[in-house]
């Protein structure tokens, strides 16, 4: 019986160690602290996105790719995103706020290419909108509330 208590304590400790980074991320994102957000977006760009880009845009993949051009640099970029259908277009949550670089680039250009489920789609009419005004509000209310997400990018399929 004592061995079970020790195993339970070890498992509990491991779970606590795994929960701490998640809590830090949630609190940091909700706080809107620019230094924290910058550090987190660098980590995402340099580590997480590299893995996501291995499958993003392919048939059946959970991620799509937004192809866009830097508004000042003119450099071509590819950013993995998770869009959902919203009427005749798409919406993408902006958990790091409305100053997210890829979103600002796409809004400035007014158009982009969305690679989703093995297809390249031209999109236009790009705008940043309150997330409450999108299909995401009804589909992911728990995540939106947990992270305090206020903004989303809305874009329409090009004619």
TrEMBL record:
Matching entries from InterPro entries are given as:
F420H2_quin_Rdtase, Split_barrel_FMN-bd
Q: Which UniProt keywords apply?
A: Membrane, Transmembrane, Transmembrane helix
Give TM regions.
6-29
A Pfam family (short name) is F420H2_quin_red
**UniProt name for this protein:** Nitroreductase
Its source organism is Microbacterium awajiense
């Amino acid at each position: 019986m004592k061995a079970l208590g020790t195993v339970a304590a070890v498992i509990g400790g491991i779970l606590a160690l795994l929960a701490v980074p998640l809590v830090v991320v949630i609190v940091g994102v909700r706080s809107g602290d620019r230094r924290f957000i910058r550090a987190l977006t660098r980590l995402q760009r340099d580590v997480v996105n590299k893995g996501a880009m291995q499958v993003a845009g392919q048939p059946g993949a959970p991620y799509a790719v937004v192809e866009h051009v830097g508004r000042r640099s003119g450099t071509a970029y590819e950013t993995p995103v998770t869009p959902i259908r919203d009427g005749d277009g798409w919406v993408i949550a902006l958990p790091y706020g409305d100053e997210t670089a890829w979103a600002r680039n796409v809004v400035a250009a007014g158009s982009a290419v969305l690679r989703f489920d093995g297809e390249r789609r031209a999109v236009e009419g790009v705008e940043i909108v309150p997330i409450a005004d999108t299909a995401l509000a009804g589909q992911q209310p728990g995540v939106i509330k947990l992270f305090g997400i206020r903004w989303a990018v809305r874009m329409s399929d090009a004619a």
